[in-house]
Amino acid sequence: MEYPNSLPRPAEELEKLEKVWEPPRGFRMFSAVNNNYVGVYYVGASFLFFILAGVLALIVRTQLAVPENELVGHELYNQLFTMHGTVMMFLFAVPAVEAMGVLLLPNMLGARDLPFPRLSAYAFWAYFAGGLAFFCSIFFGLAPNGGWFMYPPLTSMEFSPGLNADFWLLGIGFIEISAIAGAIEIIVGIMKTRAPGMSLDKLPVYAWAMLVFAGMIVFGFPAVILATALLELERAFDWPFFLADRGGDPVLWQHLFWFFGHPEVYIIFLPAAGMVSMIVPAMARTPLVAYRLVVLALLATGFLSFGLWVHHMYTTGIPPLSLSFFSAASMAVAIPSGIQVFAWIATFAAGRIQFKVPTLFVLGFLFIFTLGGLTGVMVALVPFDWQAHDTYFVVAHLHYVLIGGMVFPLFAAFYYWIPIVSERPLSERLGKWVFWLLFIGVNVTFFTMHITGLAGMPRRVYTYPENVSWGALNMVSTLGSYMIAAGVLVFVIDMFRNFRPFTGKNAGNVWNAGTLEWLPSGNYQTRSIPHVTSREPLWDQPKLAHDVVAGRYYLPGAPTGGRETIITSPIDARPQYLLKLPGSSWGPFLGALFTAAFFMSLVVKLYMVGLALGALAIAMIIWWMWDTDPETRDHPIKVGDEVELPINVVGPASHSWWGTVVLILVGATLFTCLVFSYLYLWLVNGEIWLPETHQLPELVWFVVPTALFLASSAAVVFAGRQASQLPRVNPWFLRAAVFLAIPLMMAGLATAIYADWHVGLRPSESSYGAVVYMFSVVQGVYVAALTLMGLFVLARSLTGRLSASRRASLDNTALLWHYMTAQGVIGLTLTHFFPRLMGLS
Amino acid sequence: MREQTFFKPLFVTVSGLLIWAAHFTVIYAVNALACERLWMAQRIFGMGLVPFLILMATLVAAGTLAVIGVLAFLNRTPSLPDAANERTTIFLRKVTITVLALSFVAVIYQTIPAFIVPACG
Fold first, then answer.
1. Residues of chain B found within 8 Å of residue A200, distances taken between Cβ atoms
2. This prediction's pTM
3. B-chain residues within 8 Å CB-CB of A681?
4. Which chain A positions have a beta carbon within 8 Å of B105's beta carbon?
5. Residues A263-321: pLDDT tens digits?
6. Are A284 and A350 in contact (CB under 8 A)?
7. 3-state SS string over A172-212?
8. Spatial separation of the C-alpha atoms in residues A414 and A841, rounded to whole Å
9. Cβ of B113 and A328 within 8 Å?
10. Which of A303, A320, A683 sits opposite B17 (nearest CB)?
11. Chain segment A634-663, per-residue pLDDT in tens
């Protein structure tokens, strides 16, 4: 092929690149935003939570080792198992796989960094600070105690009057924010920052897995965000969403929670499967068998997993045919999982296996995960589940799936990828000890639990009598759990001995793997960004590493004098423009700390303090946003001898446009879940849902707010048109339009609320009132956010930072604005016309 | 290449799964409504209301899957605009066909219980 750049490169080019990407030292390491640092912090923090949650599990197992044990009382025991599950799922599993994505993806895709580095940093610090504060609640007896899925009415105010449930509901708020921020980063990163030539058919399987994973977060997490908001509003203000005596329904919580909770299992598993799909070919020294079918399996699993949520609810009284749909889908999802398992086995069979530690962990994963899958098919069958539900059989199944499906691949990934971030690889000898201790420990602990469950032991009991014969089984499980702990301890020792990040050096391509992350790299990733012609470029382009280091490929220096990466088209990865990336910044770090503190203040009911902290968090975010959308240049920038790229683009090719669209998808999913809640409560509680005496507002109260929302959007459209004609038109027209749009939008919200209020509807009187006002609450969040965004646009215009070619802030605000209008109109249409259509008023 | 040309091929690639999701939603909603509102005893053409409506939904879904499958097989679905992307286009088309096949199996599979299991117990 022809190279984009000729040799020799100017002597000062590399020096300048290294200086631009120089990592921060000392205290300034907290302000680091690039993925080599944030990724390592992120993985380390998630592993810390893995250890903390593991310690809680050890206490639980010690309590259960013998019958009638008094080591911990029932109250503390409830907090222990709740925190174990919550921390493992929310603070370890999802963050760990997201962290691996942040760390690996830029290397693997041939990018210098992900497109929103400060967002990654913010997501990490919010999660870490908030997570630590949340974990500390157990030391004060304030930890949640309703189980990791927090079913009402047990968690309603009547039965959980303390702060414990609030810690869970608000405490995971920042984790949800963090996960969604990471998902936006990952989607846009994979679609827009791939190396030139890396079309979708050459995309590493891990990137496909992360793309599906991030998509699942976008469509799965909003359900639990809404659920937690509803339950917190019920607890704080007595809005009866889940209280059956006032038209609510506790099963609504289960629908919303498991609509997130079951995909959550695959949200955890798919990235792990993606890692395995990268490790297996390298360890077998041959390309992955059936790449296309594995991609199909990832896509299919991502979709089908959303059709499984009711299989956690087989005992709630749902009609048998409805259960059968979910039973069928639960069995159907085994097909794509099976495709992947057979592809890995076939790849091993086709190659020459290197029996190193990553291989062992992959084989352990195949064994344990397959067993978990088989018991999964068992509990997917309704009659069997009726017997096994809420017994230790289910505990055994879920641990087999989650430990087999995620923990083992993660350990494989640690041993496999640490050479790219550490000066030394981890120890083979210690690694084998880690593997066998974990493998034997997991099977001893959890295989036994299948029998314990079939013998009738229910989950979540803090002790049991001597005469039920569960003692020996529990003792075996407890011994196994200590074996797991020993394995983790050996791993920690291995890390202390060998893990040396941030030294500017790495161990290199120790496995002779074929993908881009194994290219020689510095803090700027690769010296030049390669042109990719196959799925395993290092195998198929033998001189690639040499040519990349020599600077023969794209962007061998830092032509703008700052950090940059190339943005490419989503399917065929053609270079589109050069993205200027930010350097180290305190904004994300401080913004994240204030965000976490804001949520914690709400938990302990310090509302005024929370308000101040929330304002500070917003101020920090605005501070870091201020220097986004940099000034454009009249001439394109050279990234190769004959290749020039513009610095900035507007519209759908822009990475920020993509980010906004993904954010809108998150909002639309949350809104859809709210519409489902409204219709669900009508369906199951139709008799008392809408009080007979209630009068709906006259139709004028539908027309007025609708007109106001539409008018505000029209003003924003006008502003956009003015912006595209700058500097030929007076900028005050644009400013006036944006300034007018804000009060129009506020008036729309105010009239929508007044419409219901003036006819006597109150949110605390019935679930109907609560859910109708909830539409206004959700709309209010957008109105508040867009007010800030509108003022931000105004400020940028007034300071000369808005022009026809520098308008991302206005374009993205406009996108979100029109979404808000659409959502408002749909909500108003539903709440005004659905009851009339049903003859309810 | 205009950015919007990306959306059509992607949409077609996952169209099978989107149809599966729509079918799943419809049949679940039909059964939930029938059981809550006690419509399950009604009959149409000698069949129970619920199995009849589910059969109709399945015919629509399976028919749509088949039509898109045939179009993909004949290379009549949206593709990338130039010859340089032929390998990528072929890859996406093959993924599309396999996704459609798996979705077809899933749609049929979740329809079968409607003729075996009583709708509302």
1. 88, 91-92
2. 0.96
3. none
4. 332, 335
5. 999 999 999 999 999 999 999 999 999 999 999 999 999 999 999 999 899 999 999 99
6. yes
7. CHHHHHHHHHHHHHHHHHHHHCCCCCCCHHHCCHHHHHHHH
8. 61
9. yes
10. A303
11. 788 999 988 999 987 888 889 999 999 999
